[in-house]
Amino acid sequence: MDQSPTSPHSGKVEQPESVVVEQAELEAEQQHVDRVYGRVAEAARSASRIAVEGHQRAQAQNVGRVREEEQTGLYERDVLVFAAARRIAELDAEHEGLVFGRLDSDHGEDKPAVERAEDLESLYVGRIGVRDAEYEPLVIDWRAPAAEPFYRATAADRLAVVRRRVLRNKGARVVGIEDDLLAPERAPEDLPVMGEGALMASLSRARGHTMRDIVATIQAEQDLAIRAPARGVTIIGGGPGTGKTVVALHRAAYLLYSDRRRFERGGVLVVGPSAAFMAYIERVLPSLGENTVSLRAVGELVDGVRATAVDEADAAAIKGSLRMRGVLSRAARDRVPAAPTSLRVFVGGATIELDANQLDNVRRNALRRTPRNRAASEARKGLVAALWSRFPDDLRNGVYADRESFGDIVVDLPAYRSFFASWWPTLSPQTVLRWLGDPRRLTRWARNELGPAEVDALAAAVRSTDQFTIADVALLDELSHLLGRPPVAEPGKDEEFDWLEGLSDGVNEVLTTSERRARAAAAADADEPEEYAHVLVDEAQDLSPMQWRMVTRRGPQASWTIVGDPAQSSWPDPDEARQAMESMLSHLQRHAFRLSTNYRNSAEIYAFAGEVIRRQIPDADLPNAVRSTGVEPEHRVFDAAKVAEAAADAAGELLQLVEGTVGVIVPPGLRPAVDATLAELNNPRVVALTPLESKGLEYDAVVVVEPDRIVSDTLGGVRALYVVLTRATQRMITVNSTTQWLP
Ligand SMILES: Nc1ncnc2c1ncn2[C@@H]1O[C@H](COP(=O)(O)OP(=O)(O)OP(=O)(O)O)[C@@H](O)[C@H]1O
């Protein structure tokens, strides 16, 4: 949608009778909106009737050029119309109306222009499609093909649209109208045009703590990315504030609509950088009527772990590097610490012993082709074979005549059983990851991969806390892949795998076969990585190579949407991360989209941020910021000891100047001091956060504390500062003890 602030038609109705015209228009639109709500209410009263109607409509749609999967989508949506009543209640009564757009079209350039407004064809666009009793559309779903011109029409290519209208709603009430006249020369005399343009109105509004949908004002280049076919990998690039996140979420809603069967059954996963980010975006999909998409932060992709802690920069860099693959693979195959180093059994009149070397050989052989947790029976066979080879020839008779019956007796001996339980326990990824805290063993696993300083840093990071960090989660996932799941007992094959084996305390419990199967199934359920039909990765520039491995395991058969901006990467080597992604997805076809307009920052704030990043990355992809406020960012310099206080003062001033939120972004080391000074403001509109936490979020006003330290203390350096400098929509104040960082 091309709604520039200088649109030649904005303000056209600022004439004496404008108020009267506006009132009349609002009333007319309200009537239509009332009909839609009335129809939905009626539908809610008779769900079963609607199911039948939906079916008939799907059949009626059989004529024409509707693709099969769209039909399915349409049919299922119609069946679900009755659920719309419930959704209306869920919509944020302040902002999210059911019907938000209207198109008035003629018949294109090769037909004469129409004379009267009533001769234009009008079509309403909304969050769901609703038809009247005669199956005439009262409003069409924003994702339907017929709604495309609402988003794609521009003055240059108007797609037969004469006027595009956006309705501003408070719940079911129409409170404002923003028009966009695409073909002034073809507009009938009596066609009213009003408002400043919906986009500008929407961009200038105060921000809250959660992101809102943009269905009413999706722009043409965004619409292309939203509706791109699902196959292969769709890459959506663009600088800060270009709508990458919000576009990705609308794309998820679109994919569900276009092929509901495939994506609802197969699942759609959205992966984002942090729990705070997931909370920020979690309302968008429900407001678009979609509740089935899984949203997970990268720290939550492994079941049972919800990591929010962040490593120090050096440890994070090591944990994310592909070199960890070799380290973890060696750890997963090594001896269990504190496991017995010899096995001694008394059997058939002889005492037989295996020493540490012999045990190591058995272990290595068992692991040659099978991951550890699935190799218990190989290990058992190896032990029996080694013991048998040491069993004296002259004793090989009776029940000890052959290896098999010898083995049956050996594995039942209490000494063997207790040995095996501690020598070959079922290993959890968590257990093995903890082993990396021992620098001596880590040095062995890290040979040729990590230098001594890196080994020390990694071991110290592992020992420093018993919580898992976000970077650990990818390591846990790698380990669970390397260790394998314990085999699930199959009917008739129970004896293949003994569940008692893994219990090191040797508890003797008696399980029935069905209990055992139920347990096995539950274990399998818990460990099985979930797989999805479509995976959408936001802030993809931040994924480390190890995280890419984890994420791609979630969709071995999936199609992908990957959203990011390399200039905002918090990974020290963005090229390495990009290569990791490419190698994981190289077999898939790609389509790339680039978003070119920054809708978040005022032009003044973005001009400054752009200058900062250009110094570091001369060819960074800088978007155009469209909205000017006339307010330049302000840079204040204080003594280092006064900075926390100065930050709170700046936040206090900004609270007076903006209606919505104020974000105070501080380097992690200064966080406690700034938290303390901000506490005195005691205002829920202010939040303090670290540069990493600010990823993807936005505030009306931002205070940036000690930019120099943001650069030196965060993994992404200047790129992290660029993220921070692009969070404010209206105002920004920086508070520093130096001025060196200024461009
Ligand atoms: N077409 C649009 N209409 C109204 N608002 C929009 C539109 N496109 C984007 N926005 C708004 O611009 C802001 C930035 O969008 P978003 O967070 O998706 O950008 P981004 O490209 O992911 O940013 P970053 O890379 O900096 O995290 C949001 O408030 C979003 O709602």
TrEMBL record:
It holds the Pfam family AAA_19. Residues 217-602 form the UvrD-like helicase ATP-binding domain. Keywords: ATP-binding, Helicase, Hydrolase, Nucleotide-binding. GO terms for biological process: recombinational repair. One of its GO terms (molecular function) is ATP binding. InterPro entries: DNA_helicase_UvrD/REP (IPR000212), P-loop_NTPase (IPR027417), UvrD-like_ATP-bd (IPR014016). GO terms for cellular component: cytosol. The keyword ATP-binding applies. The keyword NADP does not apply. ATP binds at G238, G239, P240, G241, T242, G243, K244, T245. This is DNA helicase IV. It comes from Kribbella caucasensis.
